[in-house]
Amino acid sequence: MPRVKYKSSDIDLMARMMRAEAEGEGQQGMLYVGNVIVNRLVANCVDFRDLRSIEDVIFQIQGGNYSFEAVQKGNLFYQGARAVEKRLAKKNLDYWREHPGKYALWYFNPYAPCPPTWYGQPFAGQFKDHCFYEPAPGTCESVYNG
């Protein structure tokens, strides 16, 4: 059973985002970004309440900006998804979860060492240039169950 309900258009959209956000970090890096996308849909807490689809997650606006920088800046996000990214996206949607993105709801590239917290959320781990952050204890139990 998949982690979340999805359509074929969700695979394409998620694949484009994974590539745009982490192509330089290889397939493993793209899988971690995919983990965060699925986790945000599962979470229904903190910054991610009432998201009901992959499209809702990708195009979510917070503080007047899209949650994912690639939506605003275009670049790779607006190019077609390739078969390899579609395969990775489907893998995330169906079952794939690994540390440091296993329960992460946030990631960013600080161009410096990863800080121990990010907006009050604890550091979960790092993969190449991306730092991953899980929800603070007691703030989002659903992400650990989904």
TrEMBL record:
A GO molecular function held by the record: hydrolase activity
Source organism superkingdom: Bacteria
Domain Cell wall hydrolase SleB: 24-133
Coiled coil location: none
Pfam families in alphabetical order: Hydrolase_2
Keyword entries, A-Z: Hydrolase
Transmembrane segments: none
InterPro entries, sorted: Cell_wall_hydrolase_SleB, SleB_dom1
Protein name in the entry: Cell wall hydrolase
Phylogenetic placement of the source organism: Bacteria, Bacillati, Bacillota, Bacilli, Bacillales
